[in-house]
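job 3f2a | input accepted
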Amino acid sequence: MCNLYTVRKSTAEVAAHFRVPNPMASNAPEEVYPGTPGMVVTENDGVRELRSMVWGFPLRLRGMKPEAKPKPVNNIADLAKGMWVGLARKPQWRCLIPVTAFAEAEGEKGRMTRTWFSFRDEPIFAWAGLWRVSDEWGPVYSGVMTDANEAIAPVHNRMPVLLHRDEYDHWLHGSFDDALTFQQRTFPPELVVMERTSELWSKKKTAGETPLLL
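job 3f2a | predicted structure (214 res):
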């Protein structure tokens, strides 16, 4: 699952890419981790908005103490199940997650490094997502996952559902069956660029949260 991605572009550049007319200032950092703020594109009455939300739907596991923090569910395994299907059926809860690259951990446990993936010839691209307003953290979002293509499979068996520029409206406004089709398709491996690095995966902690995939 994806637990780290970057947005190494300015708010103005992200807004221009996604045709957001009046972007608001964002407190989202360049590196986004579960339970921290990220930039999200939503649409309201035909007008796109660039908003800051927490990455991960809050979930209280059975047996958790009342004072314990919820766990952020930042990846969506199956749109047709559980906590997702009701939102996925309603286009108003779909969103576009701006990304410049996403990372997976690779190597020996305790010494894992970051392997980065990006969209060839696209300095900014979109990850299909869902959002809602939570009692705990306000607006939150999570990214839809699918089976890894041939470019990503050597590192991980899952990958984000990536969208081409001409598919943004289709994701935001399409039917539930259309949304499922996006999750079930294989993204062209030739459009994925991989960069292996020596960066330690655990060089930055994520506020003690354990990300979840549901």
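job 3f2a | The radius of gyration is 16 Å.
job 3f2a | closed
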